[in-house]
Every structure is written in structure tokens, then in C-alpha cells.
Design brief:
Number of strands: 4
Helix content: under 10%
Shape: rod-shaped
Strand order of the largest sheet: 1-2
Length: 61
């Protein structure tokens, strides 16, 4: 699973809990995009979460 190159956000794990309180594994995936961004003056493809894109932490190429 990909991680955000800026904030290191990745997948989170936990349990689905049914009405009868039986538990099964589940996964929350963060919204990560492959983006061409400027890194040290050169364009490079990196994985970035949409919150970092929206906040302006990443300069697109």
C-alpha cells in the first residue's frame, strides 16, 4: 500500500463490528494519488494524499 511522501499517511487497520458484536478485520485506505511534483527543482512522480495537495504543501510540475 502506498504512503504519502509528505505526511507519511498510509492505511489504518481496525475491526468491523456487526450488530451482534462479531468482529472482523477491516482497513481504512487514505486517498493517495500519484502526482508529478517539483522536488528540489526537478519534476518527479511521487505519491501524495489529497489533503497535502489541497493544503498546498506540494507544488505540481
Amino acid at each position: 500500500m502506498a504512503k504519502c511522501s509528505i505526511c507519511e499517511k498510509g492505511a489504518h487497520f481496525g475491526n468491523n463490528v456487526s450488530h451482534s458484536h462479531r468482529r472482523s478485520n477491516r482497513m481504512w485506505k487514505s486517498n493517495i494519488k500519484s502526482v508529478k511534483a517539483v522536488v528540489n527543482g526537478t519534476p518527479k512522480k511521487i505519491y501524495v494524499c489529497t489533503q497535502c495537495l489541497k493544503s498546498g504543501k506540494v507544488e505540481r510540475a
